[in-house]
Specification:
The protein has 14 helices and 9 strands. It is α/β, with parallel strands linked by helices. The longest helix is centred in the last third of the chain and has 35 residues, at 254-288. Residues 1-24 have low confidence and may be disordered.
């Protein structure tokens, strides 16, 4: 009798353990972080929600995504480093920050490389994008695709930017990225590298005069409250990358890995459509909120001033990769 009871107890323990394991297998939660607001117009938020919707629809009850906007898990650099360690699963990360981990991504921050979003998509979705992703994977982070932040523009409280000399002496916050710092130095500006979490207060208090950022992020993060002028310089195409920790991805079942990659592709395409559809709406909202917006007639003058930046970063990007990208852009012009 004792043996029978003992056997039953053992069998019960095994069954409970099996059920627990099965429950865990059916409840994979991925933590996804980004730096900006959880807003329907914010490209980071749009990307995150599009991925969450896609993967949860593809694997209902098996995979869920917990969202952490507004730097809840740290600044982008912290999130990216933790993804390398496998302590944060996923992030929607600005290209300039990705470039601090994998320098070949500096390619995408080169000023005036792309003249249209369609041109950027062809490069990012083609062989150049594949080579960038392969480089990043060696650093412990897997790219699920390059979503779109829109083109970056200059906003400030001094005056509209209409020609390169208008940048001279203006204190622009830049990301902590050498390409952006050198670009503003080339234009005669005063770049101030600064973490995102400090920017709103810095411009509000006059520590900086302005910053450079896509209009959608300007509107979603309430910069019209503290910044007067927005100038459509369109100096850099803003790629925002949907990324997952290689350690996280490698630890998941093969079917889940495949579903995550497919959901990433779906999310990026959906996000790009949303950003395009929102562009004119966002601009109208900014004007309604008090910003003065001007188009820039002569971008060629800006390109001429910053052309030396390309040579400065050719080696860290990789000369062959830079030439491949420039050739791809030239074919599309």
């Amino acid at each position: 009798m004792k043996r029978t009871l003992s056997s039953l107890a053992a069998a019960t323990t095994i069954a409970i353990a099996a059920l627990s394991g099965a429950a865990q297998a059916q409840n994979i939660e991925l933590k996804l972080a980004w730096l900006s607001a959880d807003s329907p117009n914010d490209p980071y938020a749009v990307t995150a929600h599009a991925f969450k919707d896609a993967i949860e629809a593809a694997m209902p009850g098996k995979v869920s995504v917990a969202l952490f906007p507004n730097r809840q898990l740290g600044d982008e650099k912290d999130v990216l480093e933790n993804m390398q360690f496998g302590t944060i699963d996923m992030g929607v990360i600005t290209n300039a920050v990705v470039a601090t981990v994998e320098p070949s991504y500096q390619l995408l921050d080169l000023p005036f490389l792309f003249s249209s979003a369609e041109q950027a998509h062809k490069v990012l979705d083609g062989p150049v994008g594949e080579k960038l992703a392969a480089n990043l994977e060696k650093r412990g982070v897997v790219s699920l695709g390059a979503a779109e932040g829109g083109f970056r523009n200059m906003i400030n409280n001094d005056h509209p930017i209409e020609k390169p000399s208008d940048v001279e002496g203006v204190k622009f916050r830049t990301m902590q990225n050498p390409v952006f710092i050198d670009m503003f130095n080339s234009l005669g500006g005063s770049p101030v590298p600064m973490a995102w979490g400090e920017v709103y207060t810095a411009v509000q208090q006059g520590t900086i005069d302005g910053l450079e950022i896509p209009l959608s992020v300007v509107q979603a993060n309430k910069f019209p409250e503290v910044v007067k002028y927005a100038s459509m310089t369109r100096h850099t195409y803003s790629a925002v990358h949907l990324l997952i920790s290689k350690k996280t991805l490698d630890g998941l079942p093969a079917d889940v890995q495949a579903a995550i990659r497919e959901a990433g592709h779906t999310a990026v395409l959906e996000e790009r459509k949303t950003v395009e559809a929102n562009e004119s709406v966002v601009r109208e909202k900014l004007v309604a909120e008090g910003m003065q917006i001007n188009d820039v007639a002569d971008l060629a003058a800006f390109r001429e001033k910053v052309k030396g930046v390309y040579g400065q970063f050719a080696n860290s990007i990789g000369p062959d990769l830079l030439k491949e990208a420039e050739d791809a852009v030239a074919q599309d012009n």
